[in-house]
Automatic annotation (TrEMBL):
Lineage, uppermost ranks: Eukaryota, Fungi, Dikarya, Ascomycota, Saccharomycotina
Coiled-coil regions, chain positions: none
Organism in which the protein naturally occurs: Australozyma saopauloensis
Top-level taxon in the UniProt lineage: Eukaryota
UniProt family annotation: Belongs to the RutC family.
The protein's name in its UniProt record: Uncharacterized protein
Length: 51
């Protein structure tokens, strides 16, 4: 898992420079359906016409 976490951090750093969103990591033995990663995301679209 450590190798995957390092790879994830590398991709994360490419898309988020100085303003990185908060994130959390929960360790579990296994995720449902055999997936390698579960991500929770909150996003805001910055379009003044929609706010």
């Amino acid at each position: 898992m450590n190798a995957q976490f390092a790879e994830f951090n590398s991709v994360y750093a490419k898309y988020f420079n100085e303003h990185k969103p908060a994130r959390s990591c929960v360790a579990v033995k296994e995720l449902p359906l055999g997936v390698a990663l579960e991500m929770e995301v909150v996003a805001v679209e910055q379009d003044s016409n929609k706010l």
